[in-house]
Amino acid sequence: MKRHAVLAIAVSLFADCALAQSHVTVYGSLGAALRVKTHASPGGASAWAIGPSPNAAGIWGVWGTEEIGGGFKGHFNLESGFDLDTGSLSYSGLNWGREALVGLTTPFGRFDAGRLQVQGLAVQPLVMADPMGGNGSFAETIWPGLYTGSRYSNALRWRANVGPISGSLFTALGESSVPSTGAGRTLAATLGYKEGPLYMLAAIQSNHDMNDRSNEVSTLAATYITGATTWHAAALRGHREQGFVMGGVGEPLAASGLGLGPRVPSIGAFEVRFVFAGITQRLTAVTTVKLAWYYARSDGGTLISTDSGKQQTCYAVLEHAFSKRTFFEASFDRNRWTGGWGGFWGSSVESGAAAAGNPFRNGFDTRASLSAGLRHEF
Length: 378
Description:
With about 375 residues, the chain is mainly β. The chain is built from three helices and 17 strands. Strand 5 and strand 6 form a beta hairpin. The radius of gyration is 23 Å and the shape is globular.
């Protein structure tokens, strides 16, 4: 009897330990590249710099999970961004500026709470479909995130999958001192389909800044794999009220990289329509080329003007894997911004050079750049 009792106790303790199994992973991506870009000042000078490699975000994070039984699992994620060339923290100097969450995975979906990024937002389809995954080359090729925001504090998110169908609901509660109003609130939802080589994802999002001005946006994206080729496409449509401040409710994906202040009010009220098309071509088992073209038209104004404007970008990235974790990258990109976006490249706001009059319109309409560097993942 004693032997049976001891055995029963041992089995019980083992089961409890099994249920409490946990796993923690440290991960990251970092890279450095030498880059030259044209029109880096109002005078038209070129500039050389060391910065992130074309497809490296400069991040490190800690991901943890714990089995708690009954199909439930606890999890957390802490993710920090940094500038490799200076060693300083990105994202306003926050320790965990990219993401900080705690959550629960259940048979009914996954719940997250905290400072959340990308997943569940209107930017998710753009990042999903972009050949570079929204990383961009020195942020100059991820400007579509200016229209959506990419990370939100004080947020809640639910995600679930049923066969090939996926969906999510997202809300950021804001920090308004008047709970009865919708000021500072964000609502978003996504719906996706993934079967075989096809992946489609749609999203809608509504933002209200602290003054209850609105930003409404919807996105749709798809990828399709045929052998060694992946085809990419996406579209965005949005409306923004004059004076809307994106940085108050969700940092724009590329604001700091483009020199735009994240909490500067939108000068114009406008409708924006954006499309992109791209291709990822695997040349060999270790060498890949990524190409994309972006186009946006803003009617009625832009973030920096009350005039309508157009934005066009094209880029090409060559990636060669030395190993599973170390890559060589080279890139070329060209931007042409006209109308209400005209004069942005090298302007005083983008370059930091002092200027009299309107500081946004004393630069150039185009910029081209080249870069080459290394990326390492862990």
